[in-house]
Specification:
Layout: H1 2-21, E1 27-36, H2 40-47, H3 53-56, E2 68-72, E3 81-85, E4 92-100, E5 103-110, E6 116-124, E7 132-141, H4 149-176
Antiparallel strand pairs: 1-7, 2-3, 3-4, 4-5, 5-6, 6-7
């Protein structure tokens, strides 16, 4: 009798975990924004050079002293990339896939993870002449094992604060150059 109850309980728990996955989205998307007191062109030039990202994102040597960067390609061009290795932050690569006035898109690859896409969208801020409304977007899919879809539920909460700090860092860096 105890074995039957154990089997039934195991099946109930398994179905309780597996069935909801079928109804979860296979993709995620999030964004954060800020207003920077500088023209779009100045913000664009900063974002378009991966060598500056260590100065404004939270993914830097303060977060992981073992972090090592490798840059390839020319800044502000499609194909410009930044690869990194780090004990705590892991290994990965960002590559610009599209650059146009007011928008820079990139692919992000982390070892062992599905690729994701990001973009920085920059446009003149309404009501703040000479300022830029910057929006950092991030999206991806949770392919493969269905349990990965659970991560999509928490992606905004996991990464959103890093984007907020990164945008604050970008704002501080760009505005300090005035």
């Amino acid at each position: 009798m105890n074995k039957i109850i154990g089997v039934i309980l195991t099946l109930v728990i398994a179905f309780g975990f597996l069935v909801p996955q079928l109804f979860l989205s296979k993709s995620f998307a999030m964004d954060r924004g800020t207003v920077i007191a500088a023209p779009v062109e100045v913000v664009h030039a900063t974002v378009a050079d991966f060598a500056t990202w260590k100065d404004w994102t939270v993914w830097n040597k303060e977060a992981d002293p073992t972090l090592q960067y490798t840059y390839t390609g020319e800044p502000n061009t499609v194909g410009h990339s930044m690869a990194w290795t780090a004990e705590k932050l892991g290994n990965g690569k960002l590559t610009f896939t599209s650059i146009e006035p007011g928008r820079i898109a990139y692919d992000m690859e982390f070892d062992g993870q599905d690729p994701a896409q990001g973009a920085m969208v920059m446009e003149p801020a309404i009501g703040a002449e000479g300022s830029t409304a910057a929006r950092w977007e991030f999206s991806g899919t949770m392919e493969g094992m269905p349990y990965k879809r659970y991560f999509g539920l928490f992606m905004d909460k996991m990464i959103g604060p890093d984007f907020e700090k990164g945008l604050a860092g970008l704002k501080a860096l760009v505005e300090s150059k005035k």
